[in-house]
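SAMPLE LOG
Freezer: B-3
Tube label: C17
Construct: single chain, 803 aa
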Amino acid sequence: MSRVFSRKIPLPLTPEVQSVGWPILPGGENLLIRRIAKIGNYRAFQDWHNHGDSAPFRRVNVVYGPNGSGKSTLATLFESCSQGTLSCVNLRIAYQDDGSPETTLNENSQEFWRSVHVFNKSYVNRSMRFDHEDGPNPDSLLTLGEENIHAQAELESALARRAELEAIQASRKASIVSETKQLDTALQRTAQLVVEELSAVDQYRATNVYHKGSVRTRLQADRGVFSSASVDVEGDLQIVGAPRQHPVTAVTGPAIAGNEVVAEVRALLEAEVTVDAIAALKGHEERAQWAQRGIALHEHSVSCYFCGQPLTETRRGQLEAHFDSALQRLQSRIDSTVNKLEQAAATADQLAESLPRPTEVYPELADDMLSAADAYRTAAKTFNTTVTELVSHLLSKRNNPFQTSQLGADIRLTPPELDPINAILSTHNARCASHQSDAKAAATRVELHRVAELQAKFDELTTSIKQAEDDRTTAQDELRTLADRIVELEKIDANPVPLGDELTTNVRRLLGRSELTFRTAGDGLRYHIERNGSPAKNLSEGECTAISLLNFLARLRSGEIAKTEPTVIIDDPVSSLDQDILFGVSAHIWAELVTRTTARQVFILTHNFELFRQWLIQLKSAERHMQGGWTAHTLEGRHDGTRRVPTLRQWTTDKKESARLRSQYHYLFSRVAKAVTDAHTGNLALHERMDILALAPNSARRMLEAFLSFHFPQHIGDFHGGMRAAIQSIDDGPARVRIERYLHSHSHNEEGDIGKPLDVSEVATVIASLFHLIRKLDTNHYNAMCESLQIDGAALVAIAEFD
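STRUCTURE (predicted):
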């Protein structure tokens, strides 16, 4: 069962009549609404003005208006203004003290409208609430008062919102826990991977040095650093993982002859020697070599060691002439060149064998070193092959100096280069010098790469967590505010405990019956309603109206409302009440609003003529002692040719006429007779005759119903039956024919239903026939009514005389 709480608004009480005097506004002026000067745009009131037909309002004002006259619309207009829900109405109200200049108010004059309180059907609907949608049942309770219902609705809404916010909190908390766990796991995995890959560098050596917090810091800092992330992770990992190497001395060696030696060889081979050659030696290389070596061997011998022949001076001279100094110089040059070439070849071989091994350099340089060394050896081999070829040519020349030869044009002697190897060694040695900084830089690049891979997921989870945290914080803030408000609502002191019996008493007094009782509920804040000891079900509209009216009147006595000296407007307080309890309701309203002077000004709007009549009698009787005076008005619908226009008129000030019109039958007889006479003059415009057409289905029928109910009491409540009896009781003759003809033909109903629409041109004649019927049935009554109301009876029925 939902709890219902009420603001501190007293329910009906019966304290003694207060005597607080006439209410005084700040400044000491007794300000009252005097006139409704203008309503620019509100439902039936379109560009509406008060044309002076009504007297200025006084403290107590009673307005009679038939249904459709605009009475309830006027009350709703005031209600909307008091609730601050109206704009662009262009309302003007004259508001003044007796004798003082008028003050103009409009729909935005909130200082005034806060003190206006309206009781109408809308208030009844708003001021009662049952816990069960079908009304009272054993589990439902009643809350009275618009403020109480607002508090109850607000509390229920607050409790529902609290449950919703708590669910939001729980959901967001679960999301935060789950997503935080996901984020921590992802950060931890990245940190672990970084440590596994980069532990060779101090700053990544272990998870207690580099951890998920380190990854989070990277992601929360400037993302621009990720532009330096590794684009070759494997290469950078090799740099990080490579052991620190030792420097390697650059490879050096003597300069090796190149293509310039080829030119030298070419020149030696092409050189010519002019001497006295021994024919036996010329052209015979081996012989020449043998003979030349023999000269040195036989320098001090007189005979040949080989053949034993004597070495005469002549023979020695011939040999020396063959091998003269020019030849020796050529051979010496050849020997020098050969030696140079052979030394170059030997140097190339030696360097090829002493090149640094690939294992002596950093792994990333090893392949380059291997390639460079292979290239050197290949070049050295080619170089040595060429050297061998050149040496062969030179030796042949030396042994046969008298023979010339030429080298091929394509012979090149290119020494193998050490520069590529030394360039690698230079890189290696530089790496040795910067090993630590390079490893650290490579490790940083790899770290940035690994962390950058986590960016998208990190952003997604952190954004989601942040949103959940914001939602949770917002929910927490709202919950704190809501908790305070719930405490306030739960502590609102309605305290209806002492009011249950008195509410029962007042309802009994208004309704004139005692089956309804009110008992305070267990929470001390609401009522159980019982009918004859059992839970009340299906309260009638009249019962709801009576209960709401009691609550409304009690509110006006509450301290906060009473001190505002309210202006009170009550619209149709007995519209849904039985006729037999009208006096009780009327008396209660009179006691609360007229006898008490808490209200600054009172307006009673009603379509019940009997209630209007009662108030006229009471106001007239009490006017000598009533502070602030009173007025009586009628509100009628007038047709201006295009639409219905509400018209406010002062009730007659003629005392005799007023006395005569104190019964509804007298009032209707007078109004209908005047309308028929005015319409028959022929001087009325179409829209004025339309007013009479609007009158026909209402006032005329109600007048006739009242007359027939007395003459044919057996047909009370059966208008058609009464009409048949009335027509049948008329003697045969022209009168009966005329009445039947018009009542039947113009009503389109053989039972004479004058509630049917009538043609404008025939309204006066048709309605006049009703007076003809009344005179035929009761001539004395007709004449007495006409005399009392100062109506020309003969002229009235003459309107219905026709052939």
